Amino acid sequence: MAPLESGSSQLFFDSSAIDGPFDVYECGTLAGTRVVPDPPPPGTSYGKQRSSRNAKKARRVHGSEEVEDCWNRLFLEGYQADVRVSTGDGSQILSHSCILGIRSPVLRSMLEEARIEHGFRNILISGVPSEAVRVFIRFLYSSRFEQGEMKKYALHLLVLSHVFSVQSLKIVCTDQLERFFLAPDNVVDVLQLARLCDAPRLSLICTRMIVGDFKTISLSEGWKVMRRANPSLEQELLEFLVEVDTRRQERAKRMEEKKVYLQLYEAMEALVHICRDGCRTIGPWDQKLKGSQVVCKFPACKGIELLVRHFSACKKRVPRGCANCKRMWQLLELHSRMCSTPDTCRVPLCSHSPTKSRKRN
C-alpha cells in the first residue's frame, strides 16, 4: 500500500485484512509521527487539584449538614415512628426504635422488653422534666441542641447521659457546665452530681474551684448541706485543700532556694571577675581599669564592689564583725571550697582556706 502524501489527513486501512476487523486512524503532518498536545500553563494542574480538594471538602461539609438536617426533621416530624416515650407529666414523644437502640444500649434493652400497643412500643423516662427528655432524644438523632435549652437542662441531661450511657452527651454537658453554669453558690451541688454520674473532668474542675475560693464557698448554703449529708466528702475536700497548700508552700520554698542559689552564683562570678580581670572602677593592682566605656556583663558586680570596698576599710574584719563583713567572709569561704584551681586563683584567701589546708596536710 502506497503511503499518503505529506500533510494529508485522509483515513486508510489495511486492505489485506478486509475480511476481518480493521483499524482506522488519522495521520499527522508526517506519516507515523505521534501528535503531542501542548502542555498546560504553569500552575494550572495544581490550581485544579486545590480547587478539587476545596470542592470535595465543601461537599462533605454540606453533605454532613444535610444529613443532620434530615435526622433532625425525622425526629421533629416523627415520620414512621414506632416508639412512644412517656415522661413523668404524661407527655409523649414519638421516636424510632432503631435510632434509640443504636445510640443507647440501655434504651435497646428497654425497647426489647417494652410492650407493643397499636404498633407502638411504649417506654417511660421519668424523674426529669419532659422538655429535658425531648432535648435528650433530639440529641440522639442529630447531636443538636439549642443553647438556651442546654443551659436550662444541663444538669438533667447530665443525669440522662449517665443513666442511658450516652458518652457524647456527657462530654457536651461537662463542657457546657464548665463554661456557663459553675458558680461559687452551686459548685458543691455540681460536684456531688458529677461524682454520682461518673464525670471525672467535671469533678476535678469543681474541686479546683472549691480549693481556689474556699473561704467564699465554705460559707455557701450548698457547703452547709453537704457537711450534714455527706461528711466524708467534706473530709476529702479538706484533706485535698491541705495537700494543695502543702504543695504550694514547697513550691514557694524551692523557688526561694533557687533564687538564693542564683544570687550566690552571680556573686561568685562577679567576685572572680573583679579579682581576676578587673572591672570599670575596681580590680587587681596589676590590671588596668577598663573605665566607664565598657559595659559590665555581671549583674552582681556593683554590689560585690561595694562589699569589697567596705571589707577593705572596715575595722571589724572578723567573722563576728559587722553584717557586711560577715557576708564577705562567707563569700570568700564558699569560693575557697568550690575553687578547683587554688594555686593560680587570684581571689584573696582562696589558697589559705582551713579546709584546703587540712586536705594538703
UniProtKB/TrEMBL annotation:
The domain of life for this entry's organism is Eukaryota
Q: In which pathway does it act?
A: Protein modification; protein ubiquitination
Domain annotation BTB: ranges:
81-149
Q: Where is the composition biased (Basic residues)?
A: 50-61
Ranges for region Disordered:
33-61
> In its UniProt record, which GO terms are filed under biological process?
regulation of DNA-templated transcription; response to hormone; response to hydrogen peroxide; response to salicylic acid
Ranges for domain TAZ-type come to 255-353
Keyword match Aminoacyl-tRNA synthetase? no
Q: Which InterPro entries does the annotation name?
A: BT1/2/3/4/5, BTB/POZ_dom, SKP1/BTB/POZ_sf, TAZ_dom_sf, Znf_TAZ
Keywords recorded for this protein, A-Z: Metal-binding, Ubl conjugation pathway, Zinc, Zinc-finger
Q: Which GO terms describe its molecular function?
A: calmodulin binding; zinc ion binding
Q: Record keywords: Zinc-finger included?
A: yes
PANTHER family on file: BTB/POZ AND TAZ DOMAIN-CONTAINING PROTEIN 3-RELATED, BTB_POZ AND TAZ DOMAIN-CONTAINING PROTEIN 4
What is the name listed in the Swiss-Prot or TrEMBL entry for this protein? Answer: BTB domain-containing protein
What organism does the UniProt record list as the source?
A: Aegilops tauschii subsp. strangulata (Goatgrass)
